[in-house]
Amino acid sequence: MAAPGGLQEEALKRKERLKALRERTGAAAAAAARQNKDDGAPELKHFRGDSEEKDMGKHKELKLRNYTPEDEELKGRVVPKAKPASVEDKVKEQLEAAKPEPIIEEVDLANLAPRKPDWDLKRDVAKKLEKLEKRTQRAIAELIRERLRGQEEDLASAVDSAKQEGSDSD
């Protein structure tokens, strides 16, 4: 646990930092009020003066759009009512641009002919047929290889038998 003297030192340092911060931000009035409070004097409410109002006016200007003031000073801040722009010309241009121009004057009867009733079935079966076609080609290739192997064995046996017959005749 920290020593009581150390806590007091930290509190004093914090007070000094806050005081320096207040001076930097320009809150001297708030600091004076706190000092009065520490001294036991009652805290007085501080109203904005003319100089502070001018400073605030620099940052944010008052614009009255929906309110009609009675005060003469505020009547100068009323924003004039906005008049809607005419959009008739823009709408006419868009309507003219949207009108389709006749592209095809002659009708091609081949394009109007309906599709065959089974076109969707053919489309859906096409992928499956591709797989089957690949498998069929592989099976045909294997059958051909087996036949060739069988012929090689027949050829080998024919050659062997021919050698045996030739050796007997010698």
From TrEMBL:
Coiled coil: 122-165
Ranges annotated as spanning the membrane: none
Annotated segments matching region Disordered: 23-75
Keywords carried by this UniProt record: Coiled coil
Pfam families: cwf18
InterPro entries xref list: mRNA_splic_Cwf18-like (IPR013169)
Protein name as catalogued: Coiled-coil domain containing 12
Taxon lineage: Eukaryota, Metazoa, Chordata, Craniata, Vertebrata
